[in-house]
Design brief:
The protein is of the alpha+beta class. Helices cover 14% and strands 34% of the residues. The protein has one domain.
Length: 56
């Protein structure tokens, strides 16, 4: 996920764990995986979140 996508769809450049619940706003494509770097409250990268939408 790019900073531009985050800004456009969620209004922030740096995602945090609190934003994960809102990831359903990102476009879905079957058989495609996505990832986002999640930041802590100080703006430091802390974890990577992966998710996908199966093609079944």
């Amino acid at each position: 996920m790019t900073a531009a996508e985050s800004q456009e769809l969620l209004g922030v450049d740096r995602l945090t764990r609190a934003h994960v619940k809102d990831f359903d706003v990102f476009p879905r494509s079957r058989r495609i995986g996505r990832c986002a770097v999640l930041h802590d409250d100080a703006g430091n990268p802390r974890e990577i979140c992966f998710w996908s939408h199966p093609g079944d």
